[in-house]
Structures are given as C-alpha cells and as structure tokens.
Amino acid sequence: MDFTNLRPILEKSIAPVLRVAYSQTLYFPFGEVIVFAMIFPYTKNVKKTALIVFSAVTLNGINLMITMIVNIGVLGVTLTSRSAFPLLSTVQSIQFAGFLERLDVFFIVALITGGFFKIGLFFYATVLDLSHVFKLKNPSPLVFPIGLVVLFYSLSLAQNYFEHVYEGLKTIPFTLHLPFQIVIPALLLVIVFLRNRKKIQSVTVKNTAENS
User: Fold this and answer.
1) What angle do CA 119, 21, 87 make, to 5 degrees?
2) Contact in structure between 181 and 31 (CB atoms under 8 Å)
3) Distance from first CA to last CA of the chain, Å, rounded?
4) Non-local CB neighbours of 61 within 8 Å, separated by 6+ positions
5) pLDDT at 88 over 80
6) What angle do CA 32, 58, 104 make, to 5 degrees?
7) For position 113, what pLDDT does the model report?
8) Three-point CA angle 8, 87, 71, nearest 5°
9) Range ranked top by mean pLDDT from 6-20, 60-74, 85-99
10) DSSP of the chain, one letter per residue?
11) Using an 8 Å Cβ cutoff, are 123 and 144 in contact?
12) Rounded to two decimals, what is the model's pTM?
C-alpha cells in the first residue's frame, strides 16, 4: 500500500462526498436494511435484534471504509474508479513469499456466496410480503411464480454489466430505492403514529368516563 495515494484528502471539499452519500450510499447498500423489517416481527427479542442490526450496519460501514482505503492505497484513485471490481484487482496484485498469490478465486467464491444469500433474503421478503398482501396463510404457492418472474426479469434487465451499473446508479435510486426505502416507510411510520395516538386518546377518554 502507498498511503500517498490517499492524498490530498477532501481535495474538493466535503460537498462531493455528501453528494455521493445522498445519491448512492444512502440507498445502497445501507438502504437495503429495510428488507429486514419483514423479518423483525418474527424474532423473539425485538430489542436485541435491533441492537444486532445496528451493530451489523456499523461494522459493515467500517468494513467498506477499510476496503476502499486499501483499494485506493494499492491501485490509486484512477484505477480504483475505473475498475468494475476494485477489490478483485487489489486481491489479484497480492504476492507474498513467491507462493501466496492468485487469491482472486477466494474473492469470486465470496462474491457468489454473498450474492446467493442476498438474493435469497430478498426473495424470502418478497414472498412473505405478498403473502400478507393477498392474506395467504401458506406463502409456499407464491415461491414458484415469483421465482419465474425473478428469473426472466434478471435476463431482460440489462444487456451487459455496464448497462446494469448505469441503471443502478441513474434509474433505480429514483424509481425503486427512494420510494421503497424512504417514502413508503416514512408514510407507514406516520400512519402507525397517528393510529397509536388515536388509540391512546380513545383509551384515555374511556378511562375518564369510567372513573367519572
């Protein structure tokens, strides 16, 4: 690593950093934690679950920060920004004692494994959500049709990786991420707050009437 690649820090002030954080990092990967909201109601200890999720998000942010520092320190800013998978390029450059090299296979395995669990989690949340929408006691009948939709949609989503990245940065944040991760949860929070407030007021009025 060459730490001089990290300088100058905040060359163009903090404005570009905040712009990227608002337009990209806020939604991916941290915004996707909203998927876990479908699983929270099924946990035994909600407070402990919330602490675990908060810790996981914090550690994930630290991990991403360290990974980016390593990538820039090894590859430099130009190569890091141009590479489709900067960490893969960093791992490919590892050479230790003349025998420890070609570690990119471990990166590929980790990438595929992580993608498998991520897709599985999203798929599970989708099936669970639609079962609530259609009021189905058994969500199993939805697995096969939703799986077909995911399969064919993934094949028609983008023609190549660069088109996929372009859509993910320019289109998806405004058509999917913003409404599903910000707008809809905020509206649901307001609705729950108003319903609970109305319920508390009705209970208070009822208790007052009984005491009088």
Assistant:
1) 55
2) yes
3) 76
4) 30
5) yes
6) 75
7) 93
8) 15
9) 60-74
10) --GGGGPSTTTT-SHHHHHHIIIIITTTTGGGGGGGGGTGGG-S-HHHHHHHHHHHHHHHHHHHHHHHHHHHHHH-HHHHHH-SSHHHHHHHT--BTTTB--THHHHHHHHHHHHHHHHHHHHHHHHHHHHHHTT-S--GGGHHHHHHHHHHHHHHS-SSHHHHHHHHHHTHIIIIIHIIIIIHHHHHHHHHHHHHHHHHHHHHHHHHHHH-
11) no
12) 0.74
The count of residues in the chain is 212
**In b/e form, how buried is each residue of 18-41, taking b as 16+ CB within 10 angstroms?**
eeeeeeeeebeeebeebbbebeee
Token pair for residue 57?
């998000």
Token pair recorded at residue 14: 């903090």
Phi and psi for 71 in degrees, rounded to 5? Answer: -60, -45
Say how far apart CA 64 and CA 4 lie, in whole Å: 20
Amino acid, res. 28:
F
Q: 22-79, pLDDT tens digit by residue?
A: 777 777 777 777 788 788 888 888 788 888 888 988 898 899 889 989 999 988 888 8
